[in-house]
């Protein structure tokens, strides 16, 4: 299949260029002159710089496809080679021909402490990439009508390369307005803090959102002494300096914040809600087809989909409690199981390949046999967007990562939220208390969700009155999500305004 075909790379002056991308250095003098003269008539071009991880690349790619299809832009992705994978290469090769990619040379990070967080490593990589990004932008300036540079939330320092070349720079936020609001207010909050967020007696109050307990503030901000905290403050400053911030959300899911942030405010970047940017379908293969065939045989709305994203894992004890809780609930389920890790390292697989272990070997003895007629357990992966779109799926037990949350809302599926790391705890507060489309489990004092609690909440979602109320609300948001992306919808209008703005920029 073409999807699994990876493009070869060639080297020019120490930089990686995809074979499918013509080197600007190969253009003849006459052709270069013609291109310069025709600069105003050529398609506008945008460069995207995602941070590491498919969760960052996927929504950016959906945005790129919209810009190509609706507004006739051409796009170049610049990626970090040290975080490349066969999955990423295959995905980039599958994109339309108007979207090409370049790879930065490896960015040295060996001097960082071994316990550096992934957010720190991504931030440092962005800062150290500036000269290399500039070297890639220079030939694009002469070979394309380059109108904008868009970095994602952890690559903001790389915008210095665009600024030096007078290329308008923007920030893409793959999560939500809650994150953006917190970051806009972070410098002021930090100035008043005398302790870590987790030590706060009172919740954090952010305009347009329910109170956020300090313990639920995103992980990178939980230790003020950690280098990661300093980087988040740096990103917060750079967000305000950008010419615009694109956010992968839609107004109806965060209505009060959307109204507030869309107002122009001195010293703050303009905010554009352009989501939900999600895939229409997954490339299923035989494993995915098995899931969908099984769903075909289940009653409408009867199945709880259980998945914690591509990297979310639990301890062996927690995995066992989850299994026994699902069994005790008596509800139908489709569960994507990953091999267990230490509970404190639930996000430790962020950039790594899936475990070679067989995850099914860690399940309680006899579990698969006892639940054979009720549940389907698959190792590591399922075609999530297709599972959530299936008529048999009636609920989603999720880590509350923002991509998964948007996919669930776009298909009208209510959630049980089980946050693990990053900003997922904040997301869960918003989905339970703000959007009112989710339920949350209560942990024991040792942090474990026991089988009784899991069984209880699953039954409430799938059978109870509260579950029915959440289902109704989820269906309302499904309609709103679809409307946002129609021609007259809020997200489409925002993107159209941006596209016109970019097209009007004079070339450098």
From TrEMBL:
Pfam families: UDPGT
Keywords: Glycosyltransferase, Transferase
A molecular function (GO) term: glycosyltransferase activity
Entry's EC annotation: 2.4.1.-
Highest taxon, organism lineage: Eukaryota
Enzyme class: transferase
Assigned protein family: Belongs to the UDP-glycosyltransferase family.
Protein name, as recorded: Glycosyltransferase
Species: Dendrobium thyrsiflorum
